[in-house]
Amino acid sequence: MAKNIQRVGIENGRAAFAFEAVKKVKEDKRIGKFENYRSYVKKMPSLIQVNGLGQALAFCYQKEKEYEAIYQALHEWFQEKYPHAFQGDKKEFVQVVINLPSAEYRLWTMEALALLNWMRKFVDGMAKENEEKEQ
């Protein structure tokens, strides 16, 4: 019974967080083209599956604008979900990830893929809104 009460929001709040992250990028014109962001969000899960979470984040870390927005969204999500991992000395997000024990690294990879799945859905929906407004 108690387990049902602990669940907050759809998939522990991932959906709400993903919606706000995508909406923030759509409204912030400094980040770059929304179409590029859309394309990169859709590519991120395969980038993670092929190269691993650490390398995918290192790739995003070196890039600017759209990839930086994806990196920041993942960073904020993991800070919210696993605040204990970010306590103490100030480490870069990618540094925290590459120093995780193997079991946690796999857990974080699955979490990133689940969040990106929600972001992929919302980025398509918000891009569709743009297309309808332009017609």
Molecular structure report:
Helix 3 (34-51) packs antiparallel against helix 7 (102-134). The protein has 135 residues and is mainly alpha-helical. Mean pLDDT is 88; it is low at 1-6. 76% of the residues lie in helices and 0% in strands. It is globular, with a radius of gyration of 15 Å. Pfam families: Cas_Cmr5. One of its GO terms (biological process) is defense response to virus. It is found in: Cytoplasm. This is CRISPR type III-B/RAMP module-associated protein Cmr5. Keywords: Antiviral defense, Cytoplasm.
Sequence-ordered SSE layout with sheet pairings:
Elements (H helix, E strand, L loop, with lengths): L1 H5 L7 H14 L6 H18 L1 H10 L3 H16 L11 H6 L3 H33 L1
Helix pairs in contact: 2-5, 2-7, 3-4, 3-5, 3-7, 4-5
Protein name: CRISPR type III-B/RAMP module-associated protein Cmr5
Family: Belongs to the CRISPR system Cmr5 family.
Keywords: Antiviral defense, Cytoplasm
